[in-house]
Design a protein that fits this description.
single chain; alpha/beta; 6 strands; binds 3-methylbut-3-enyl trihydrogen diphosphate; binds magnesium ion
């Protein structure tokens, strides 16, 4: 295993529907299998020393899916929280949601909010689920909140800069971990689908052909190995013989 472990890993957990359809099942079966993979990946990320793990579970655009599929997705999320929260707590995992949490149904909030609260003092792996999340929504919201603060006299327009904008994003709660080091996407698609556009400005990307239900701890280790072999330059120059 590479010695360079990314601090913040973000995963686009894609391909549940295709995984199921290729096996002659309905799409929701893929969501069931996909959800069952989440716990072991969180555990492995923690063991590997990753500090922050952000899982893209549901986008602002995913609301356009059929009602039947949506209801299964929410049921599975509730089930995951009920079943796995104890283990997350035992492992000192901190849980957060980034996205439009206010859009979630009361039945989801009734389980999610106490789960977040229960893990709120934990200091280990910073686990975030991106739910009803869209980067464009996040950036537009940040602009609106900043403008409102200006109107209230709390800020001045000339104070806006990259750091200040970051403070208005959902990911601001992650502090210095809010920049993403590695984005992994499953399912063979090579696009970002409105995920962490700002935070992934200098992230490395690993695109995998396998679908999310086939993701395993070993696959995560493989992606980290690939990350370890990458040369991150951040626009600068690597001077031979000088390690950064
Ligand atoms: C990812 O799998 C899960 C969600 C977006 C909720 P998909 O449901 O997008 O599966 P594919 O990409 O259609 O196969
Ligand atoms: C991205 O997958 C969102 C999640 C995995 C939660 P999508 O399936 O929604 O993305 P597109 O439609 O292929 O771009
Ligand atoms: Mg998809």
């Amino acid at each position: 295993m590479s010695e360079r472990i990314p601090k913040h890993v973000a995963i686009i957990m894609d391909g549940n529907g295709r995984w199921a359809e290729r096996r002659g099942h309905t799409r929701v079966f893929g969501h069931i299998r996909g959800t069952s993979k989440v716990k072991s990946v969180i555990r492995e990320a923690d063991h590997l020393g990753i500090k922050a793990l952000t899982l893209y579970a549901f986008s602002t655009e995913n609301w356009t899916r059929p009602d039947g599929e949506l209801s299964v997705i929410w049921k599975l999320f509730i089930k995951f929280l009920k079943r796995d929260i104890d283990e997350l707590h035992r492992n000192n995992v901190r849980l957060r949601v980034i996205g439009e949490v206010e859009r979630l149904a009361p039945a989801v909030r009734a389980v999610l909010d106490p789960s977040i609260e229960r893990l709120s003092k934990n200091t280990g792996l910073q686990l975030s689920f991106a739910i009803s999340y869209g980067s464009r929504r996040e950036l537009a919201r940040a602009a609106r909140l900043f403008a409102l603060d200006c109107e209230k006299g709390l800020r001045k327009p000339e104070e806006m800069n990259e750091q200040v904008l970051g403070e208005y994003l959902w990911t601001s709660v992650l502090g210095e971990l809010s920049d993403v080091d590695l984005v992994i996407r499953t399912s063979g698609e090579k696009r970002i689908s409105n995920f962490l556009l700002w935070q992934a400005a200098y992230a490395e990307f690993v695109f995998l052909d396998l679908c999310w239900p086939d993701f395993t701890p070993e696959v995560l280790r493989g992606a980290l190995q690939e990350y370890g072999a990458r040369e991150r330059r951040f626009g600068g120059l690597i001077i031979k013989g000088v390690s950064s």
